Each structure stands twice: as C-alpha cells, then as structure tokens.
Predict the structure.
Amino acid sequence: MKEKRNFTPEFKRQVIEELLSGTSRPSQLCRRHKIGISLLYHWKKQYSMGKLNNEPINEAALQDRVEQLERLVGKLTLENEFLKKALQNNVNHRGRRWSLSNGTSSKPSAEDVNS
C-alpha cells in the first residue's frame, strides 16, 4: 500500500505561488512534484482562503462566505415550504374532522377549533 505523503504549508504555498506567477503550467507542476491536478487545485483554494500561512485573498474569502450563505438560504427555504405545507395539511385535516363529527359541511368557527 502506498504511504501517505505529508506536505508542509510552506511547500504548498511555494507551489501555488509558482502556479499563480505563471512561470509553470499546472501539468508541469504536477509532474515535477508528483502530485495530482485535483490536489494542486485544492491547495490553490486553501491558498485563496489564507489557510497556508498567508493572507487570505479577499475575493476568495468573500466568495466562500457567499456560498455558505446561499446554502443556508436554500436550507431555510426548504424548511419554510415544508412547514407551510404541514400547517396547511393540519388546518385542512382539522376542518374535515370537525365537520364529520358534527354532521355538518360548514367549516368550524374559531371558537370550535380552540375547544
């Protein structure tokens, strides 16, 4: 089994700074350092967020925050829709149950529902 290699943050930062400077292409860097292209781009993302002992690139940090907030908005929207449907089903179910037990076809009044 292949032994897992560990790279220091300094090495990762050096590789990414070489990539960003344009002196080497991604495929050249991957061959030279014997790393995968996905790992190189993972390091690039870490670098842009300031996780390699460097200052974060403001645009990337903001983009990451926007993505987090978009996921939260999506989750809250789904929860809201679910709760609306559950409330509507509950109201409809109570109305049907009341009218069946009462023998009438009219909807219950506010006083009837609270009792």
